[in-house]
């Protein structure tokens, strides 16, 4: 996607000859008064004239600011926001996506495979604290693990709406309230069946609406497929990537999907493919298949130096290293709790920039040493194979 144009509408008005400053409006008013000859005492020392000038120019300045900052900005898709952006999107048949809760499955493991164990509805499985927040899932119905089964996958739903709950495998593993007969609960690979999503932000809605202008036909264009795929909760137009090199022969193409947080699971991919191919939302003769974005795996170790390590007690050191660990994992799309630059396909992931973000979030950090150089991606997204964060002493 191309960068959104930045327009200074005050400059646009100024270029059109509209007075845009208090001085220019006052001078324009003075010229009109002198031309009409209605008031003779226009001295700056006159209280009456100062009052009249203020009464006239203040509303004019308010109207100019409202015209530039609200009316003109909301006339165009590139600069509209809020309710006005939603009105423009409605005009091209786009409805903003609401916030939704993540759904998936958690594997519950029994202490004794011979026992019959029932996991009650509402059983909570949560994460450790991530940047001050604990994320939780709850089972949606009573589920019984029969005798002879060591474990079972049980359906769960996030305790709240939002994409932050789309965490990578292994994050959900704490049972705050023990369940009799259960020794472990954890989210595994492909646990996420329906990604959670925040209410669609203006920038993503703007890109979906902009994509509508490319729909020159009902089928056979990237824009059509991009529009259909991005209409699914949890995806946006900028996270759909196409491969047109006939991967399965002439007339075939692939679409690779990327979640902002967490891993795109196979059940979710299957649901998108079912929508496009089985439910008939594809071109005549098209062979379009969706896949999770290919991944490259990287082992990363980080050495953290602080100015006065002896000033940090054991608990503070653990909190610092845990926070840095969470931030780095956020950059590699395992969680969404920090505002950091994330890994992308067809991009360079800069460790110097990651270092700046760690310094900004944790001012006590004096220096950092990363074991890897920048990662340059093609049609793939960098992920962590392993991460070690250690505190070093000079």
Descriptive report:
By secondary structure, this protein is of the alpha+beta class. Helix content is 30%, strand content 23%. The protein has 9 helices and 16 strands. The strands form 5 sheets. Strands 1, 3, 4, 6, 7 and 8 form a 6-stranded antiparallel beta sheet that branches. β9 (240-243) and β10 form a beta hairpin. α2 crosses α3 (47-72). The longest helix has 26 residues, at 47-72. The protein is extended, with a radius of gyration of 29 Å. It starts with 8 loop residues before the first helix and ends with a strand.
Order of helices and strands: HHHHEEEEEEEEHHEEHEEHEHEEE
Q: Figure out the total of helices.
A: 9
The radius of gyration over CA amounts to: 29 Å
Regions with little confidence, pLDDT below 50 for 5+ residues: none
β content, as a range? 15-25%
> How far is it from the N-terminal to the C-terminal residue, by CA?
45 Å
Total number of beta strands: 16
Q: Helices and strands: which structural class?
A: alpha+beta
What is the mean pLDDT? 87
Q: What fraction, in percent, of the residue positions are helical? A: 25-40%
Let me know the largest β-sheet.
6 strands, antiparallel
Gross morphology is: extended
